[in-house]
Structure formats: structure tokens, C-alpha cells
Amino acid sequence: MKLSLSFALRIRNLAAPFTPLGATLSMENNNHHHHHHQRRTTNSGVESSPGVQKLQQLVKTNSSAGWEESWKQGVTPWDLGRPTPVVLHLRDTGSLPMGRALVPGCGTGYDVVAMACPGRYAVGLDISEEGIKKAKQMSSSSPNADYFTFLKEDFFSWCPTDLFDLIFDYTFFCAIEPDMRSAWAQQIQNLLKPDGELITLMFPMDDHAGGPPYKVAVEDYEEVLHPMGFKAISIVDNELAIEARKGREKLGRWKRAVGNSSL
Ligand SMILES: C[S@@+](CC[C@H](N)C(=O)[O-])C[C@H]1O[C@@H](n2cnc3c(N)ncnc32)[C@H](O)[C@@H]1O
């Protein structure tokens, strides 16, 4: 039952990663009528999105300058314009750890603001000055303003004084070069308290070549997180994914096994 449902969603979901919702829906309709379902396993979906193509050109040469340039040019095809629905769900059902929360590669930072509350101080990190500027503008009149901050920092070299109870990664893991994934896991370990929780919204779980966004699989996370002592507590399909990403997202929750022993 579950398999066939997710298969149906995947078949309907032919659009490029990061394609804005509107564009995706019309592409889906188009593909439906013309039966171009085989597109999904090729690279043509990615190539056919001008925003993603432009992003890849910009980030290709020098990633840090490339991200800055994409923010300056408004090439932000990943941006939902609102908090991620599953983050709101986790927050509202009390399933987000309290304490200090970090969102690396936070972009406009809707999720940072959504997580912030008196019991949870949220830090949004982005390497792009322009991105951080957008985040501060977006959030300037938030009633939660005392409970979050945005910092322009390179995630890989950042060394804060206080560790985190929660790190939430969405579309950051897929944005970095795949050869940086071990360093990503090492830094997650450095920044998280021993009993802290890592939540990964894994996307895009598909089969395209190139990036960003680079394709991801659960095994890609396991490969770098297991050596750091992290184990998945749960991995589930994200049924709250936005339409354009349905069937290509899983929510993973990870904790370190070390130090939890009561033997
Ligand atoms: C695909 S966007 C995702 C933004 C946000 N998570 C969202 O879902 O809207 C990736 C973001 O990571 C940022 N980024 C890339 N490399 C970074 C690094 N080394 N440290 C911090 N941020 C980085 C980029 O500037 C960009 O804003």
C-alpha cells in the first residue's frame, strides 16, 4: 500500500529539483499529457529549469562566490517563500528538541524563525552576506525576534562557543559538493551536544546527475554519519512535502549512541 502510493507520487513528480511550485505543476501537467515519464531518470528535468541551470553555472567555478552571486541575482530556485510544512508540524506537535537549534545554509531562514520560541533559541547560518541580509529583512518584524539570530559564517569553519541541542538540515547537504559530506558530518558532530539531535530532511532522493542540488540517498547520510557515531532513530517518508517534492523526501532523525549507555 505504502509502496504503491509512493510510486504513484514519484510517477507524477517529474519536475526538476528546486523548480518553483507553479512551474512544476505546469510541467507535470505537460508531462502527463505527453507521457514523458521516462524523463524522470534522465538529467533533462534538471537542465530544463532555467533557475537551476543558472545556479549550477554560478556555483560551479567558486562555490562561496557563486552562492553570493546567486543571491545577488535572485537565483534562488530552492526558496519556498515560507517555512517548511514538516517543520511546522514537528514544532506544533512538540517533537522538536528545545534548547539551542542550528540551521546551516539557512537561506532566507523561514525555518529558523518558525523554530524560535522562548524555550528554543535558533541560529541561522549562511555563507552569503546577501542571503543573511534577506533573512534579516524577512524576519525584521517577527514577534519571535528575541529568540533567533542570523550569522554570516562558513559552516565548515565556524567555531561557536555554545553547542546545539538540535541541528536541522534541509537542502544544505544536497547543496554542498559531495566530497564535502564527510566534513559536513564531522562539523555536525563538533557542533552538536553529545545527546543532541540531528534532523535531516533528505532531498532530492532521485536519480539525476550533477548539482547543486546533488541527488541524495539514505546511504549517503549513513556513510558519513555512522563513523561519527550517529544512528538513525527514525527515517520516514515526508508526507508533508510540497507537491513539487513529494516522493523525493524523507525525514531522518539521528542521535549519537556514545554516552547514552546505562550499563
Ligand atoms: C539550496 S540553499 C538552501 C537554503 C535553505 N535551507 C532553504 O531551504 O531555503 C543552500 C544555502 O547554503 C548556503 N551555503 C552554501 N555553502 C555554505 C557554507 N559553506 N556555509 C554556510 N552556508 C552555505 C548558500 O548560500 C545557500 O543559501
TrEMBL record:
Transmembrane segments: none annotated. The keyword Ribonucleoprotein does not apply. The keyword Nucleotide-binding does not apply. PANTHER family: PTHR32183, THIOL METHYLTRANSFERASE 2-RELATED. Keywords: Methyltransferase, Phosphoprotein, S-adenosyl-L-methionine, Transferase. Residues 41-53 have a biased composition (Polar residues). This is Thiol methyltransferase 2. Residues 25-53 are annotated as: Disordered.
